[in-house]
Amino acid sequence: MIRICATEDVPKGTVISADVDGLQVAVVHGTDGEFYAVHDECSHASVALSEGEVEGCTLECWLHGSRFDLRTGEPSGLPATEPVPVYAVEVRDGDIYLPVGADGRPTPSNGVTR
Asked: What InterPro entries does this protein map onto (predicted)?
């Protein structure tokens, strides 16, 4: 497990970008109150998802408006058609952690790699 940040660093309804051994991860505090982590790059246009808007358990790409389900990585509308990698999140003692593999990088829980 690797500590990403304190929960207070990600207010409800916001997203931050974190570098985990060279991999950019968007850490999201959904408006549903849950914490999520996804690869910080839209599968359609290669722009940072961390600059998008959070609604419930979805994150909208700021450039073309595709929304991604933060639980599955699946896009819910065009122009994106491919899912983004999703990472398991563990909240412990007020901190957010991601499990990492032997290479020191988070392993996608939805099997999607980039």
From this structure: Rieske_2Fe-2S, Rieske_2Fe-2S_sf
Q: CB-based burial of residue 98 (10 Å sphere; 0-12 exposed, 13-18 middle, 19+ buried)?
A: buried
Q: Read off the tokens for 10.
A: 């990600």
Residue-level pLDDT, tens digit, the chain, 114 residues: 999 999 999 999 999 999 998 999 999 999 999 999 999 999 999 899 999 999 999 999 999 999 999 999 999 988 999 999 999 999 999 999 999 989 888 999 998 987
Q: What is the DSSP string of 17-32?
A: EEEETTEEEEEEE-TT
The first and second tokens of residue 24, run together, are 């950019």
Q: Which long-range contacts (CB under 8 A, 24 or more apart) does 62-70 make?
A: 66/42, 68/38, 68/42, 70/28, 70/30, 70/34, 70/36, 70/38
CA dist 55 and 62 (Å) reads: 13
What's the whole-model pTM score?
0.93
